[in-house]
Write a structure and sequence with these properties.
The chain starts with a helix and ends with a helix. It has 10 helices and 7 strands. β3, α7 and β4 form a beta-alpha-beta unit. It is α/β, with parallel strands linked by helices. The chain has a 5-stranded parallel beta sheet. The protein has a single domain, classed as Glucose-6-phosphate isomerase like protein, domain 1 (Rossmann fold), CATH 3.40.50. The mean pLDDT is 95.
C-alpha cells in the first residue's frame, strides 16, 4: 500500500529531525522564550502551505500567548484554486519583490521581538523581504525549512541570498526538496508531500520547549485550555484570561 510507504517516509522525517535538529530547536526556543519573557512577540509568517504551521500554533488548545501570526490573506487563502485569489495570483505574489516590505509596514516592531519564518525552499521574495525588514529593526530571524536540500539553490531576490543564509537560527525540516515522496505507477510526479508534517512536528517540539524554559524561569503562561471537557468549570475563565492578555499585548502593535 502506498499509504504505508508515505507513513514510512513520514516516520523517517520525524526520526531525522529528532536525531539532527534538537540542538537547533533548543536555540530557537531559547530566543523565543527571551522574547516572550520580555513581554514582546514572536511574529510568525509563511506563504501557501507554509502558513499551516502558523495557523496551527496560535490560537490553539495547548498554545499560549506570545506568538503573533502575520497572515496575509492573498498568500494564505488560495483554495478557490481559480478565479479570485487563485493559485496563479498566489505564485505571482510570493515571488514579487517588495510585497513583504509593504506587509511589514503595518506593525510596530521592537528589537526584542523575533520573527519565525517557514519556507520549504527559502528562495521566494516575500519571505526574504520580511526577513530583511526584520533584521533592519534588530529582530532575531528564525527560519524553519529544507535548508540542507536547498544548498546551492539560486534565490529569486536581488539581495543575492536565500532565507536560510539570512537567518540567525535555522532549523532544518529534513524534507527532500521535491517534497512529494511516493512514486506512482505510470506517472512522472510523486504524491504524498512531507513538508507540512515536518513543519507541524517542529512547531510543537519548539513550543513545548519554549514552555518548558519559561516555566523553569517562573514565567506564568496564558495557555488556551480545552473548553470541551465535561466537568472543567473554569475553562472559559482561563480562555478569557488568555484572550485578555493577548489583547493587552497586541495594543503595542
Amino acid at each position: 500500500m502506498l499509504a504505508l510507504e508515505w507513513l514510512k517516509n513520514a516516520h523517517g522525517i520525524m526520526n531525522t529531525i529528532e536525531a539532527s535538529q534538537l540542538e537547533n530547536i533548543k536555540k530557537a526556543a531559547e530566543a523565543m522564550a527571551d522574547t516572550i519573557e520580555a513581554g514582546r512577540w514572536v511574529h510568525t509568517f509563511g506563504c501557501g502551505h507554509a502558513t499551516i504551521p502558523v495557523e496551527e500554533m496560535y490560537p490553539r488548545i495547548g498554545s499560549f500567548v506570545g506568538f503573533h501570526p502575520l497572515c496575509e490573506l492573498p498568500l494564505t487563502f488560495f483554495t478557490q484554486i481559480i478565479g479570485q485569489m487563485g493559485i496563479h495570483q498566489f505564485l505571482f505574489l510570493e515571488r514579487t519583490e517588495g510585497y513583504g516590505v509593504e506587509i511589514m509596514k503595518n506593525y510596530d516592531f521592537d528589537q526584542k521581538d523575533c520573527i519565525w519564518l517557514f519556507s520549504h525552499t527559502g528562495i521566494n521574495n516575500v519571505n526574504i523581504d520580511v526577513a530583511l525588514e526584520a533584521k533592519k529593526k534588530g529582530m532575531k530571524v528564525i527560519v524553519y525549512g529544507s535548508a540542507g536540500e536547498s544548498v546551492g539553490k539560486k534565490t529569486r531576490h536581488s539581495c543575492g541570498k536565500t532565507l536560510f543564509e539570512l537567518a540567525d537560527i535555522v532549523v532544518d525540516s529534513c524534507v527532500p526538496l521535491v517534497d512529494a515522496s511516493v512514486p506512482l505507477k505510470n506517472h512522472f510526479d510523486k504524491v504524498g508531500p512531507l513538508s507540512t508534517l515536518a513543519f507541524v512536528t517542529m512547531v510543537w517540539m519548539t513550543i513545548t520547549t519554549v514552555a518548558e524554559i519559561l516555566a523553569e524561569r517562573g514565567v506564568h503562561l496564558y495557555i488556551h485550555p480545552s473548553h470541551n471537557v465535561p466537568g472543567d468549570t473554569t475553562a472559559r475563565e482561563r480562555l478569557d484570561a488568555a484572550i485578555n492578555e493577548y489583547k493587552r499585548r497586541v495594543k503595542v502593535l
